[in-house]
Amino acid sequence: MSLLRNPTRAVRIGSVTIGAGRPIAVQSMCATHTQDVAATVGQVNDLHAAGADVVRIAVDSRKDAEALAEIRQQTAANLVIDLQENYRMAELVAPHVDKIRYNPGHLYHHEREKPWQDKVRYLVDVATNHDCALRVGVNCGSVDPAKAGQYTADPLAPMLESAREHCDFLDTLGFTRYVVSLKDSDPAQVIEVNRRFAALRPDVPLHLGVTEAGLPPDGVIKTRIAFEQLISQGIGDTIRVSLTVPNSRKSEEIEAGRLILQDIAAGRVRSVVRFNTDTLNIISCPSCSRVENEAFIELAQQVKEITAYAREHALTIAVMGCRVNGPGETDDADLGLWCAANFVNLKRGSVELGAYPYDAILPRLKRELDALIAEKATAGV
To answer: Which of 10, 144, 347, 371 is 20 to 30 A removed from 25 (C-alpha atoms)?
Structure first.
């Protein structure tokens, strides 16, 4: 059975082209520290061998950029770089990669007085000069604050409007070699925002993913729900399954992605659209090079185990592995943990409760969870 595909335009990323009816490309992201060249090269090549069409690496400093130059010499994989918060790193990394991903919500972190349009114009110039594609990566936990404040009635409008605005601006610059991603940790939100964007801009290739999908098997199930609903309707040109797994198991993201695509093509799909709306929902980000302490991965598993008694309560616990996504993407959870090198920050909604050592956070989390359950019981919820 052949998959129905939206008539998106073709965008080349190194040796692979997505959109325009091409096979859906599968991606993953390195979890090694970029400056550890040997480990990063090993993981890039492992993912490439597992069938990754594109592999993403994070660069957050000049030393990371210097390491990237060495990595590029030791792999044939198509590389995409994640600029994090410093858009000016683009000129250092562009000579060594095939695509640059920027987050519209992070453009305001540096040179705040400069209009975002000037920053995007700079990124386009760099990408054009170095034969790179761009990804406009919009994320639920890091939307431009101006957009978040402007659209309050519709929770998806800030993401949708940010993506539309950046696409329109890129078009005015005559640059059309770009892809868009709109990601959320809730599969239903991923389905809805991508449907709406595809209706607005059916020409723009979409990178699909459920961010912070979490530990397998739940993380695979959440992602499968979103992909089945979207891809079966012709929406999506490249995918990433984001799982919280140890570095040695990163290829599971590729395997899961390939299997989901095979099942959709064969008609082996489910009709479930929502996930864990009435039970405990644990979300955790995929292991990546931004993680400062790999103990985060074990912590996510421990959180799942010690909170199993609360599985019938409609609460969300978020476990984030870094300072980039951690603070913002735990705000919507009932309880949130975001991990630094030597401590874990605990939050209740957007309220910070303090920082705790890794060996002390679980009892503190359990106390807060018990208090939340008791409050809901008192309120009759």
So the answer is: 144
Tell me the one-letter amino acid at 45: N
| DSSP reduced 3-state for 242 | coil
- pTM across the whole model: 0.83
Rg (CA), the chain: 20
What does the pLDDT look like over 296-341, one tens digit per residue?
888 888 999 999 999 899 898 988 887 766 676 677 789 998 888 8
Token pair belonging to 11: 């965008």
Residues 235/194, Cβ–Cβ less than 8 Å: yes
Question: Alpha helices of 266-353 — where are they, by DSSP H?
Answer: 295-306, 326-329
Tell me the pLDDT band of 274, cut-offs 50, 70 and 90: low
Alpha-helical regions (H) of the chain: 37-49, 62-72, 90-93, 116-129, 145-150, 157-172, 187-200, 218-231, 251-265, 295-306, 326-329, 361-379
Do residues 307 and 317 make contact, with C-beta atoms less than 8 angstroms apart? yes
Q: Where are the alpha helices (DSSP H) in 155-277?
A: 157-172, 187-200, 218-231, 251-265
Name residue 276's beta-bridge partners: none
And the tokens for 168? 């329109």
Residue whose token pair is 């562009």? 94
pLDDT of residue 341: 83
